[in-house]
Design a protein that fits this description.
The complex is a heterodimer of chains A (58) and B (952). Chain A is mainly α and 58 residues long. Helix content of chain A is 79%, strand content 0%. Chain A is built from 2 helices and no strands. With 952 residues, chain B is α+β, with helices and mostly antiparallel strands. Chain B has 5 domains: 464 residues, Sodium/glucose cotransporter; 71 residues; 127 residues, Beta-Lactamase (2-Layer Sandwich); 83 residues, Helix Hairpins, CATH 1.10.287; 156 residues, Histidine kinase-like ATPase, C-terminal domain (Heat Shock Protein 90, 2-Layer Sandwich). A 5-stranded antiparallel sheet of chain B has the order 4-3-7-6-5, sandwiched between helices. A 5-stranded mixed sheet of chain B has the order 9-11-12-14-13, covered by helices on one side. In chain B, strands 1-2 form a two-stranded antiparallel sheet. In chain B, helix 2 crosses helix 9, helix 32 runs antiparallel to helix 33 and helix 35 runs antiparallel to helix 36. Chain B is rod-shaped, with a radius of gyration of 46 Å. In chain B, 43% of the residues are buried. The chains are: A mainly alpha (58), B alpha+beta (952).
């Protein structure tokens, strides 16, 4: 049972989101904490997905 | 100052461990989730407290990417850990080595995986000892021996306590305390350092830009290597594996860790760069890995410095305890238990605990001794080498759940090759000093060690993957490996096989297991019985299989895959199947009922269709029983439950012999008989007499399941009985006229004789008259008795059949028929001998003759004779009634025994006579056949009856 949604998310992350985010995070003249902002957004997304999954199961 | 910091550190250590212990003991579900996430956070050991600051100095922002990669395993836990957790519900794994042994089978894989894990975790052990040394060097000037002795003693004490109480659970709260202390220490150290050195965060930001540090840390040159190595290591880190697969952790808690663990890592990572820059700004002489406590101490913050030192000590001790006990368990399961005769140990649990303590202590002491002779002094180096080593186990782990073609030979070759390359090019040079080797015939010099760690880490991983793939392709895979490979696949749904056990009761299993495990067997059996709510007197095969599976799972957790497999083979072996076990479609159905929500797309639609068909089957108004090989009941629908009062959950997995009476006898007798159907079986169910019809499927092949259909025929049987009674009573009415005529003649005769008697005086004449009167009254008695016999409504059933004279029955029928119409008995020619008897019922046989002879008479208009004859046919008697009448009309030939089918004029026949005859014959276990024209003739009809001949 292939989880198509997860595969689609992975493809999107690897081809679009990660290159753009890493480029944005280490731009010259940018703030030093930008990489942590990206990380925080990913944690927030994981939290939302987890909440969604929990409500699906309950 | 140092003493102050040491005392503060001890205070923090005691307070945090006590706090975590109380939280773990008395806290609710939320606090358990917090404990789990903090324990996972501390699972990185001294890396976050010490190594990452040094790593940030070396690799800049690449370390952020590396730490993020380390948390990705939890972000993607549905891909990695959920499949293993699902499998862990069936087979309980104590460690990663047990999981690999289960998947790839054999002792070789256990020994090599265990040895590899010990070797690759050595640098991590050494890193913790080095972190403890750093704290010691900073705080004390005393000899390190004493400090190390104290630390080793504490570790042994904690390990012993954890081993006795259940390792994973006991150590988790220590790890949680360490995690909490570490997070607090990182946050406060960074805050006080930035505040003291820069005067605030905005000032620090200005300094970062002005000093050029921003450009320095923004370099990402090692990011890819660090990302891959940290990601791969996180899969195989023993702490992660053991915590995530633990039965004490729910799926919900794993879900929470998917975001909470990366969040904690993020919070910890944010503090790394401020601490680094604080140290650089004040030009600290301390090594980067000591900044957590050295910078606060330098800025006169002893409490924060003490907190930092305490966090490093607790994190290092926690990880040393955790890893040493886990590795001890792996060593015990892989090397010791599979070869030991466990029944010889009177106190098995204590014996195992002592060995666990011995092995874990040996590992700690070996690492402590090794730390004296190694040259590496950088915690970062040790972590990078350790993680590059741990990454060697990841290909095998991922292949276990995603690549069914990867086999034992491939994994062994890959691990041996990868670990060898890692050891030669990275581990040994890092620990004992770099060395180089000039390639023969060239000027190229290979430098082994940390200088080229990225190259060697990738080389080792590539060699591992290449050898694993090549050997898996080239070497054959036996059936056992194929079967377990399928079982471990990520999309597999576990269907327990319907295997035959060699034991037939719980007591037999208990005795057998006791021979191997001694008194421990009783505890194992009792736990398994309690888990499944089974009774010790249980004998149902399905329940015993469930018990065996549960025992296997528990033994695997306690003694490892190898020892458990050996025990099951010796104590609870499976019976050798006479033919291959078929796929158990009913078990698949029961599993799909639970796992159905995982299906998507067309599989989901097919599942809906399956459920629809299943509902139809369950709700059919006819009982369905499916019997597997060995006579085990695997399907029992709701109609069966209604008929019998036995629920399908209770009866599933039982044998027919386990069914209560009268079902056991009725179904067993039917199965033993050759026929495919049997009607009107009379059973006493719940104090009421009921009739059931049984049918069984004709198996296409011997492997097919047998399907039994059970139909409640009570209503139709009662209907037939009522009809027969009514018909009989109606016949009595029709006979009345004939009877009156028949009785009238002798009565007239008696009256005449009586008149003559008035005038007779001679004794001889009077005697003659009296004899004549008596003969006339005898005649009346015979007629009346026939009428009484015929009109009585008693029923006779199969078990009341008895020998019956065919001639008597035929003559009685002829006698009764001669009463109904003006017809002479002479038309009926009875050729049956007086001594022929069949197994039947007299009254029902008379009724059959009456109907058949009546039909023959009605069809014979010219007065031609109606012949009744018989002839033996083996153990049967064939009775033939032939007439020379009009025969049977062609259109109704095929429907003769159906109700309301007649060729007579309206008002003359109901069409129920032959239908009733058919039911009576069936009730008497006979057969009936009508042929027209009659045998040996060109007209008329022959009715043939076949009954069991009674042998005198």
């Amino acid at each position: 049972m292939l989880n198509y949604r997860l595969v689609a998310v992975l493809i999107f992350l690897s081809s679009v989101a990660v290159p753009l985010a890493s480029q944005w995070a280490v731009e010259p003249q940018s703030s030093w904490f930008r990489p942590f902002v990206v990380w925080a957004l990913i944690v927030f997304a994981a939290y939302i997905i987890q909440r969604h999954r929990k409500s699906d199961e309950s | 100052m140092s003493l102050d910091i040491a005392l503060i550190a001890i205070g923090f250590l005691l307070a945090s461990t006590l706090g975590a212990y109380l939280l773990a003991t008395y806290g609710g579900a939320r606090s358990q989730s917090l404990i789990l996430v903090l324990a996972l956070f501390a699972g990185t050991g001294a890396l976050l407290a010490t190594g990452t600051i040094e790593m940030a100095g070396r690799y800049g922002f690449s370390v952020v990417l590396a730490l993020f990669a380390f948390t990705m395993v939890f972000l993607f836990s549905p891909l990695i850990f959920y499949p293993i957790r699902r499998l862990n519900e069936i087979i309980r794994f104590a460690s990663l080595v047990d999981f690999l042994t289960f998947r790839f089978r054999g002792r070789a894989i256990a020994v090599i995986a265990c040895s590899s894990l010990i070797i690759v975790t050595m640098p991590l052990f050494l890193a913790q000892l080095l972190a403890l040394s750093s704290v010691h060097d900073f705080l004390f000037e005393s000899d390190k021996w004493l400090f190390r002795l104290v630390i080793v003693s504490i570790i042994i004490l904690i390990n012993w306590s954890a081993i006795k109480q259940g390792m994973a659970h006991s150590l988790r709260w220590i790890m949680a305390a360490a995690g909490f202390l570490l997070l607090l220490a990182l946050a406060t150290s960074a805050l006080v350092s930035v505040e003291s050195i820069f005067g605030g965060v905005s000032e620090m930001n200005q300094w970062v830009v002005s000093s050029g540090q921003r450009l320095i840390v923004q370099r990402m040159d090692s990011s890819y290597s660090l990302f891959i190595i940290f990601l791969a290591a996180s899969f195989a880190l023993p702490v992660n594996f053991s915590i995530v697969i633990s039965e004490h952790i729910s799926d919900n808690q794993v879900g929470i860790s998917a975001w909470a663990y990366p969040l904690l890592m993020l919070l910890a990572s944010i503090t790394i760069f401020p601490l680094l820059w604080s140290g650089i700004a004040v030009q600290s002489s301390s090594p980067l890995q000591d900044y957590l406590f050295a910078i606060p101490a330098l800025t006169q913050h002893p409490i924060v410095a003490g907190l930092g030192a305490a966090s490093i000590v607790l994190v290092a001790i926690g990880l040393l305890c955790n890893m040493s006990t886990m590795l001890a368990k792996m060593v015990l399961n892989s090397f010791v238990l599979p070869t030991k005769a466990l029944h010889k140990q009177p106190h098995l649990s204590h014996w195992i605990n002592l060995r666990l303590l011995g092995i874990s202590t040996g590992l700690i002491i070996a690492c402590a001794l090794l730390s004296y002779i190694i040259k590496a002094r950088s915690i970062t180096d040790l972590y990078l080498v350790g993680f590059a080593g741990l990454a060697q186990l990841t290909p095998a782990m991922l292949a276990s759940i995603y690549l069914p073609k990867i086999n034992r030979s491939g994994v062994i070759a890959g691990l041996l090759g990868g670990i060898s390359v890692w050891l030669i090019t990275l581990a040994l040079p890092t620990l004992f000093g770099d060395y180089s080797w000039q390639l023969p015939g060239t000027e190229k010099v290979l430098i082994f060690g940390m200088e080229n760690w990225q190259t060697w880490a990738f080389e080792a991983l590539m060699v591992n993957i290449f050898l694993c793939a090549v050997f898996s392709i080239l070497s054959p895979m036996d059936k056992e490996q194929q079967s377990f490979a399928r079982l471990c696949m990520v999309d597999n749904i576990y269907i327990p096989a319907r295997v035959q056990l060699s034991h037939h009761s719980v007591e037999q299993m208990r005795l057998s297991l006791r021979r191997l495990l001694g008194s421990e067997a009783d505890a194992e059996i009792d736990r398994a019985l309690q888990k499944h709510d089974l009774d010790p007197s249980e004998t149902r095969p399905a329940a015993l299989r469930k018990l065996r599976d549960s025992l296997y799972s528990s033994l695997t957790l306690n003694f490892g895959v190898l020892a458990a497999h050996k025990m099951m083979e010796e104590a609870l072996p499976l019976a050798t199947p006479t033919r291959p076990e078929p796929d158990d479609i009913y078990l698949i159905e029961s599993v799909l009922a639970i796992e159905g929500d995982r299906l998507t797309g067309i599989a989901s639609e097919l599942n809906k269709l399956r459920m629809h068909h299943r509902e139809i089957l369950d709700n059919l108004p006819i009982g369905i029983i499916a019997l597997g090989q060995g006579g085990e009941i695997i399907k029992w629908n709701s109609s069966m439950a209604r008929y019998t009062g036995i629920n399908s959950e209770i009866v599933a997995g039982s044998l027919i012999s386990d069914l209560p009476e009268p079902w056991h006898s009725a179904i067993s007798a039917f199965l033993q008989e050759g026929g495919t159907s049997k009607d009107s079986i009379e059973l006493e169910v719940a104090g009421k007499t009921q009739w059931f019809g049984l049918q069984k499927s004709t198996a296409i092949s011997p492997d097919d399941d047998l399907i039994l259909l059970v139909e409640d025929q009570t209503k139709s049987v009662l209907l037939i009985q009522n009809y027969i009674n009514n018909e009989r009573l109606a016949s009595v009415g029709r006979l009345a006229a004939g009877v009156a005529h028949e009785i009238g003649n002798p009565v007239t005769g008696i009256a005449c004789i009586a008149q003559n008697l008035q005038h007779e005086t001679e004794a001889a004449e009077i005697e003659t008259s009296a004899e004549l009167i008596l003969s006339q009254t005898d005649r009346i008695s015979v007629i009346v008795q026939s009428l009484i016999n015929f009109s009585r409504g008693d029923q006779t059933y199969h078990d009341q059949l008895q020998p019956v004279s065919v001639l008597d029955a035929a003559e009685e029928a002829i006698q009764i028929l001669s009463l109904t119409k003006e017809q002479s008995k002479e038309q009926f020619v009875c050729l049956i001998a007086a001594n022929i008897e069949i197994v039947s019922d007299h009254r029902q046989l008379v009724q059959i003759f009456l109907n058949l002879l009546g039909n023959a008479r009605d069809a014979t208009t010219d007065g031609s004779p109606i012949e009744i004859s018989c002839q033996p046919d083996g153990s049967k008697l064939r009775i033939m009634i032939s007439d020379q009448g009009s025969g049977i009309a062609e259109p109704i030939k095929d429907q003769l025994f159906e109700p309301f089918v007649t060729s007579k004029e309206p008002g003359e026949g109901t069409g129920l006579g032959l239908w009733m005859v058919f039911n009576l014959v069936k009730n008497l276990r006979g057969e009936i056949n009508l042929s027209s024209p009659a045998k040996n003739s060109d007209r008329g009809t022959t009715a043939e009856l076949l009954f069991d001949l009674h042998n005198n």
